[in-house]
Amino acid sequence: KRPELTEVEQLRLRGLLLGHSPAEIAEQQYAAVRTVEVALSQGLYRYVEVLTGRDRNTLDSWRNVADWLQVAGYQCVQVAINWAQMPDVPTLHGRQVELDQLKGWILGDFPCRLVAINGPAGIGKSSLAISLAQTVHAHFEGLIWQSLRHKPLLENVLSQWLEQLPGEFTQAAPWYDQLSAVMTYLREHHCLVVMDNLETILSSGSLIGDYEPGYEAYSELFKRIGEEPHQSCVVVTSRESNREIRGSAATTRPVRHLSLKGLSYDAAEHILEEEALTARSHWKALVQQYRGNPLMLRIVAMTIQEVFDGDVRYFLRQRMTLFGDIKYLIDQQYERLSQAEQDILYQLAERAEPIQLEQLHHPHSLPAITALLRRALIEKSAAGFTLRPVVMEYVRHHLP
Q1: Which of 11, 109, 270, 364 is the most buried (most CB within 10 A)?
Q2: What span, in angstroms and rounded, lies between the C-alpha atoms of 133 and 303?
Q3: Domain 7-71 and domain 329-397 have a common topology
């Protein structure tokens, strides 16, 4: 009796059932074409022969796999893809490296069960997750996009998922029974779940990672998804990282974390071109001022076009980085900070030059600095810690 398929073999069989050639599967798994062809010939094709009751060594083409299984009575279950909660976001610029990295984590030889995409407001987390989902969804039986923006309770989320998944589930069951039913489904099927805006259910006013009262059950969800074997993948976007994902990513290979940085100048240039800005020689200074944050660059580019007739020079002469919707983005992050984090920001704002950790005067300076780095509100260099330009202007307006 042949042993069960490995995760890699399951992915390759799924690719064949979707009509992908060995060359396409090799590209998806970052493997050599010959390696995949040999593995299929020596393993998976023989497995299909056993399943379908055919003679050994009679399956010699990947094109026959789906037909043979269908004739033998096997059916592929396709879960309905739910895009309903997916937001409408601007075109993604300059994220091919990150997109390839995420695809490698999800579709590679050792696929991840849980992936977190973290970064500050406006950095493009949702845009990247959407592009990822649109790129890889054909490799999965189904896709669920779950927005957390309006802070749904876990029992409501699980109930909604069970309504979308084929099968008979008890909708009125307690949340922990619903979670067990979801985990069973994720083990038996290959699904992609994207959970967007996790930060909305995390507690403000404390160091990052804690949940708001009433939302602690999400801790069990992420713990089980990260630790229990299954063949699905859950992608989480958040301005802040939670304890379960951060802890699992440090110890568990199937859990990964991507910290999203600002765009390169070449990528940011496309955003400024879309607004037809002029004074191109000053564009790099503008991109650097906002650290390549795509949403901030779109906001400032529209303002420059409306107020300064598109001339970047005249805007930079104002020496004003903080205004309108850009201030609102920083407001959202500042309001979530603990008192210790705010105290550290004040100390950094009072000094023009970078500060070393030992120069900070606060009993919780290390955890506060760590949290601020994870929120991307401060920068670290060999000289020490300093504020990002936009944050510097914001904090100086809030100095007590």
Answers
A1: 11
A2: 32
A3: yes
Domain ranges of the chain: 7-71, 96-259, 265-320, 329-397
Q: Which residues pair with 233 in a beta bridge?
A: 192
Regarding the domain with residue range 96-259, which homologous superfamily does it belong to in the CATH classification? Answer: P-loop containing nucleotide triphosphate hydrolases (3.40.50.300)
Which residue ranges of the chain lie beneath pLDDT 50?
1
For 7-71, the fitting CATH number among 1.10.10, 2.20.140, 1.20.58, 1.20.1070 is 1.10.10
- Residue 81: per-residue pLDDT: 60
**What pLDDT is stored for residue 93 in this prediction?**
85
Q: Within 10 A of 223 (CB to CB), how many other CB atoms are there?
A: 16
CATH class of 329-397: mainly alpha
Give all strands (DSSP E) within 129-245, no chain letters: 142-147, 191-196, 233-238
pLDDT digits (tens, 9 = 90+) for 166-223: 666 666 688 989 999 999 989 988 899 999 999 999 988 877 778 999 999 999 999 9
**Helices 365-374 and 339-349 meet at what angle, rounded to 10?**
80
